[in-house]
Structures are given as C-alpha cells and as structure tokens.
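Encode chain A's predicted structure.
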Amino acid sequence: MAENNSIQKEEEQPVLSIIQRIKEGSLNPEMVDKKTRQGCVEVLEAEGYGISAMAQIFKKCNKTIKRDLD
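Encoded structure for chain A:
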C-alpha cells in the first residue's frame, strides 16, 4: 500500500523534482509511471540529453524512450 501511495505522490510532483530525485538516487526510476516518464523525457530532451542517456537514467531501452518522445 505504501508503494501505491508513493507512486501517486510522484504523479503530483513537478517533473523537475522527479528528475532530480532520480538523479540523486532517492527515487527508483522504474517506479515512475509512463505518463510521468514521458514528461520527464520531454524536459530532458529540451535540456540536450540524448536518447541513450535518458534510457540509462530511467533504466529503459532506447526504443522505449523513442516511443516516449513520439
């Protein structure tokens, strides 16, 4: 149950806050839902991150990140 609560809280947080928490290791990127991940990927792309770098951050394959950007 606590896991579900943390996921709901992630959806309510600003994208930049979620990205920061992932980078510092306080949030497991695999716990981020698809919609939130897509928002994060858009922000990271605007900041100049490549698909491979974003895939590493979110622990996803390159194809998943490419789909997130479409």
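Residues 1-10 have pLDDT under 50 and may be disordered.
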